[in-house]
Amino acid sequence: xxxxxxxxxxxxxxxxxxxxxxxxxxxxxxxxxxxxxxxxxxxxxxxxxxxxxxxxxxxxxxxxxxxxxxxxxxxxxxxxxxxxxxxxxxxxxxxxxxxxxxxxxxxxxxxxxxxxxxxxxxxxxxxxxxxxxxxxxxxxxxxxxxxxxxxxxxxxxxxxxxxxxxx
Length: 167
Description:
By secondary structure, the protein is an alpha+beta fold. The protein is about 30% helix and about 30% strand. It has helices spanning about 5-15, 30-35, 70-80, 95-100, 115-120, 125-130, 150-155; strands spanning about 20, 45-50, 55-60, 65, 90-95, 120-125, 135-140, 145-150, 160, 165.
């Protein structure tokens, strides 16, 4: 099993219980749903990294939904307005080169959802936060971590919102 030591230390230091689940290599959260034959796809989490006006954020979605850029932009604009900041001008997925340079924990394409560990704010879609337990990337393509959503919320304090849409 290849869970990076930084992730294990982070979880143990914060007294977060987890179950490591080994599986065949998967490269998307939807592949994970299919591989583990999950009845509720929302129990798995896909982690995206977006660049918003040169600020990078983690976005957590259920694998059976698409990212709704317009809804997320509205959420970001509302948050920025509260802070007295200007609205979002540019928003897009980070480039692979940025990932290789800046995400030092886990393999490319297996980003763990631990923003505090990665020094990135976390935004979680409400559908993800309604689950009792979720499967998240363990930093490798062949291992996932099952953790309670209550523990995840306590650990990461994600910004909540509705920014997913039907595929």
